Amino acid sequence: MSLSVERVVEALRRSTPSLLRWSGAIAKQLRQFNIALDGKSSGNANTDALTLADLTVQELVVAGLRDADPILRECRLEAEEANGDLSAFATDAPLTIALDPIDGTKQFRDRSGDGYAVMIHLRDDSQLYYSLVFAPESGPTGTWTQTYGTTVKTGSDDTSKTAFDCLEALPLMTASNRQDSKKIYLIRFQKNDP
């Protein structure tokens, strides 16, 4: 089977919305308890937070990716934590699926805000091809951001629809309907944090 970017993006578009919605629901419930764990040490307190939710959400998403379209197992899986059936995925492949089970774990753990999210991305060494972010506590039912090709969508979750159908119904962002903001945070630039 050849690893086509378009085919992998389509497989992710079809399989990841429900995975992220389920994962967000689990994270939201687990957040009610003291679930902090020790053992992560990158040297940056903002990124060293680890909770049972990180491990639980990653386990669910990794299993969901493994059991979805077989082409996804031909990609490398770059997961933030070390758990889940990571061995089901390629160890050397031109495309990488990147997973952050709880982006914003410190805020999540400390209950200092609702800006945490579950994230999935598809990339190679030089380009991002797909990104899906679900922030389960942003707004009444959560907020989505999805990008692929020239498509950029963001908006509220609508739980009366399937997650896929909700994303399909979100309006495309264009230069004319996009809000201006200089608040863009790029991961891997934490060393520049105040």
What are the key terms here?
Fructose-1,6-Bisphosphatase, Chain A, domain 1; 22% strand; 194 residues; two-stranded antiparallel ribbon
CATH topology descriptor: Fructose-1,6-Bisphosphatase, Chain A, domain 1
Strand segment tally: 8
Portion in beta strands: 15-25%
List the helices and strands in order: HEEHEEHEEEEH
Tally of alpha and pi helices: 4
Assigned CATH architecture: 2-Layer Sandwich
Low-confidence stretches: 40-49, 185-194
Give the overall shape, derived from the CA principal axes. globular
Strand order of the largest sheet: 3-4-5-6-7-8
Largest sheet entry:
6 strands, mixed
Text of the CATH class: Alpha Beta
Q: Give Rg in angstroms.
A: 16 Å
Total tally of structural domains = 1
Mean pLDDT, nearest integer? 82
What is the helix content? 25-40%
Structural class, judged by helices and strands?
A: alpha+beta
Report what the structure shows.
The chain is of the alpha+beta class. The chain has a single domain, classed as 2-Layer Sandwich (Fructose-1,6-Bisphosphatase, Chain A, domain 1), CATH 3.30.540. Helix content is 28%, strand content 22%. The protein contains four helices and eight strands. A six-stranded mixed sheet has the order 3-4-5-6-7-8. It has a two-stranded antiparallel ribbon with strand order 1-2. A hairpin with a 2-residue loop joins strand 7 and strand 8 (151-156). Helix 1 runs antiparallel to helix 2. The protein is globular. The N and C termini lie far apart (46 Å). The model is unreliable at 40-49 and 185-194 (pLDDT under 50).
